[in-house]
Amino acid sequence: MTVNRALFDEVMVPNYNPSDVIPVRGEGARVWDQQGREFIDFAGGIAVNCLGHCHPALVAALKEQGEKIWHLSNIWTNEPALRLAKKMTDATFADQVYFANSGAEANEAALKLARRWALDNFGAQKSKIIAFNQGFHGRTFFTVTVGGQAAYSDGFGPKPGDIVHCDYNDLEAFKSLIDDNTCAVMMEPLQGEGGIIAPEVDFVKGVRELCDKHNALLIFDEVQTGVGRTGELYAYQGLGVTPDIMSSAKALGGGFPIGAMLTTKEIAKHLKPGTHGSTYGGNPLACAVAEAAFDTINDPAVLAGVKEKEVLFKQLLNDINAKYDVFSGVRGQGLLIGAVVNDKFKGRAREFLVASMEQGLMSLVAGADVVRFTPSLVISEEEIREGMARFEKAVASLV
Ligand SMILES: *Cc1c(COP(=O)(O)O)cnc(C)c1O
């Protein structure tokens, strides 16, 4: 069998259009393809591979649990899930955790919980959900409808109702939407897919105050920002604004699929037995790997390292820009970084990704105008410099 990109078009549903390069092996921040070509990985599996590829702690956890027990279902609980939940609640505002398999599922649980909480406490009229334009919360029908890009939710028939959107960082517009019939507000504490857009602290504080005033739950989607990505364990901790419900996924499993919805005991009690569930959620294999990832990242030295790497990353990007003048700015927090293309390259961010691959560098985009970098949180300085040298060649090839 010839296993190549052409086979994708033959046997895979065409909802993706992947690169011609098929990676077969990874180690730390480096990846090799079928032909043995080496790449520096600044994509990190879209903010998932927080410890790079095949980190020894994760491989050890996977092997150890793989020889113990893989799956039980929710008729039985398991030690890795209980340990991980205890560690996550000890490290955050939350008292209790619901495990799922992905970010979308964690958000789906958060939204269903918010609706049920509002119904139980206030009645059916309190169902309005407010979210933000350009926000991204996953691809289930509920989460994609809450997400702020109609292009992703149109064309699938009637949508879940009572969901409205407003501009991120526009507190006045938000004020005019929220009322006593609002059950929840869902937001990313830094918009990732939407273009690496940070919130203004006054905006988030204002949203929190208005949620309190109208008895609405504030849900932070930390699927992309969580588990060290911004240099905080969770981004809310850096903002000084605490949500009522939070979702976590991506980096949580370091590459093994897992999602989590975290909340307080008072809110959690509305998800009574039978209200919600998942066959795989809280699976021992996923939780064992996530526990190892969480233990490794939840370390002040590792989190401080992310902030140091952010400085170097941005400095090198700015140096490249000073030479070639391709970006209007470099933004983001921790190792969630966006380089915004300037007018000359408007709508052409993807060309930087393609040119980078030619030079042996994996990168990402966030929309049409932002080149995005979400490398391993433990990438070495040497690998950052080598990756940036390759990125500079890619930029030079475009100007
Ligand atoms: C990636 C992402 C999701 C979706 O996660 P999946 O695991 O793909 O379902 C949700 N919210 C945010 C903020 C994300 O970045």
UniProtKB/TrEMBL annotation:
Question: Could you give the cofactor binding note from the entry?
Answer: Binds 1 pyridoxal phosphate per subunit.
Q: Which NCBIfam families match?
A: arg_catab_astC, argD, PRK01278.1, PRK05093.1, PRK12381.1
State the species of origin: Pseudoalteromonas qingdaonensis
Reaction equations catalysed: N(2)-acetyl-L-ornithine + 2-oxoglutarate = N-acetyl-L-glutamate 5-semialdehyde + L-glutamate
According to the record's subunit comment, the protein's assembly and interactions are:
Homodimer.
* CDD domains, sorted: OAT_like
Question: By what name is this protein known?
Answer: Acetylornithine aminotransferase
Where in the cell does this protein reside?
Cytoplasm
Q: What is its EC number?
A: 2.6.1.11
Per UniProt, where does pyridoxal 5'-phosphate bind? Answer: G103, A104, F136, D221, E222, V223, Q224, T279
The alphabetized UniProt keywords are:
Amino-acid biosynthesis, Aminotransferase, Arginine biosynthesis, Cytoplasm, Pyridoxal phosphate, Transferase
What's this protein's family per the entry? Belongs to the class-III pyridoxal-phosphate-dependent aminotransferase family. ArgD subfamily.
Task: Read off the SUPFAM superfamilies from this record.
Answer: PLP-dependent transferases
Q: Which cofactor does it need?
A: pyridoxal 5'-phosphate
Recorded GO molecular functions are: transaminase activity
Biological or metabolic pathway of the protein = Amino-acid biosynthesis; L-arginine biosynthesis; N(2)-acetyl-L-ornithine from L-glutamate: step 4/4
**In which domain of life is the source organism classified?**
Bacteria
- List the transmembrane segments: none
| Miscellaneous field | May also have succinyldiaminopimelate aminotransferase activity, thus carrying out the corresponding step in lysine biosynthesis.
InterPro entries, sorted: Ac/SucOrn_transaminase_bac (IPR017652), AcOrn/SuccOrn_fam (IPR004636), Aminotrans_3 (IPR005814), Aminotrans_3_PPA_site (IPR049704), Class-III_PLP-dep_AT (IPR050103), PyrdxlP-dep_Trfase (IPR015424), PyrdxlP-dep_Trfase_major (IPR015421), PyrdxlP-dep_Trfase_small (IPR015422)
